[in-house]
Amino acid sequence: MPYTGSPFPLAAHPRPAKRGSVPRAEGNPAADGSAANGLTRRVSRFFRRARLRQLLALSVLLLSSPALAAPAVSPLRVSASVHPLALLVRAVGGEDVKVDVLLPPGVSPHGFEPTPAQMRRLAEAEWWIAVGGGLDPWAERLAEGVSGGRPHLILIQPSAGSAHNADHNADHEDGHRHSGVDPHLWLDPVLVRDELVPRISAALSRQRPAQAKMFAGRAAAFQQRLTALDAELTAGLAPYKGGAFVAFHGAWGRFAARYGLREVAVVEPSPGREPSARWMAQVVETARREHAVAVIIEPGFNPRVANTIAAQFGGRTVTANPEGGLGGTWGATYEDLMRYNMGAFRAAMTP
Ligand SMILES: [Zn+2]
Fold first, then answer.
1. Reported pTM
2. From ligand 1's centre to the CA of 110, what distance in Å?
3. Using the 8-state DSSP alphabet, how is residue 69 labeled?
4. Ligand 1 mean position to 58 CA, how many Å?
5. Second-level CATH architecture of 237-349
6. Distance from residue 185's CA to the centre of ligand 1 (Å)
C-alpha cells in the first residue's frame, strides 16, 4: 500500500468505529458473552485490520528509508597512501570500512607529489594509513600538516625510516639496496600475516570499538588465507631457488628473501631517475657474474633502459607489479596481486 503520511498516523489518530460505542480495541471478543458481542467482534476486527495497516505502513517505511535500512554505524572512511595497503585494510575492514587510495593507479609512489585535492581527501578521512620508511614521504609530510590531527598508522616509524629515506632519494648512485628498512613490506605475505594484519586490525578496532569483533574475525580468516598463499608461493617458486634477477627498482628484496630468489642489482637505484651509462654497465656486469636470467620491469615505467640492459646480459624482461593498484588482471585482492607476481617470477626465472 502506498504510504504518504507521518510515520505513525494510525497510532496517533485511530479512526473511530462506524457504529456503536468506543470499542475495546485490545479486548478478546470471544471472552465477552454479552449481547454486544457481535458488534464488539466487528469493531475489534476493524482495529485488528487497522493495526495490520499500521504494521504494513511501518514496514514500507523501514524498507524504503535508506537511513533506517543501512547499518547502524556508517563505514569508517579510510585513506591509504598506496594500493597494497588499501587491499589489506579492505581484507580486515570488510563492509565496515570505505577505503580511498591517494596514489593514482599506475603511478609509482616514489617521487609522487599529491595535488591539493588529494591532500584534502586525506584530510577528510577519519583514519589514514601509510607505509613510511621513505616509500611514501608525501604521506608522512601530510601527517605533519593538515592531517596530522587525524588518527593514523604509519607502519615504519619515522625514526627507523629516516636513514632509508635519505638513501631512497639519494642523488648519487650508491648501489641503493634498501640498506635501511626496505619499505615494500607487503611483498612478504608472512610479514603481512604476522605483523601488518594484527596492527591494522588493532588500529581499526580503536576507531570502531563496536566493530572490534568483526575486525578480529576477518583478520583471523585473512591470516589463514595468507598461510595458504605463502604455501602456494613457496611451492610455486621452489623450482627457481637461488635464481638471480635484476629489479627495475629495489622493490623485491623481501619477496626474494622469503622465496629463495636473489635480487642482485637494480636498474633505477633512485626510482624515477634514469641511470647513468656507468651504472648501467655495472648492472650488466653484476647480472653476468651472478647469472641473472631476467630484468623484472613494472607497469607504468618506460622499459627502454631495462630492455637494453637485459639484451646485454642475455636475459629476458618480464613485467611484475610490486606496487599494485591497477585492478583487473593485476589483482583485485591482495592474494590476486601476489599470485600475479608469482606467475610473473615463474615466467622470468624459467631457464
Ligand atoms: Zn617501490
1. 0.74
2. 6
3. H
4. 55
5. 3-Layer(aba) Sandwich (3.40)
6. 10
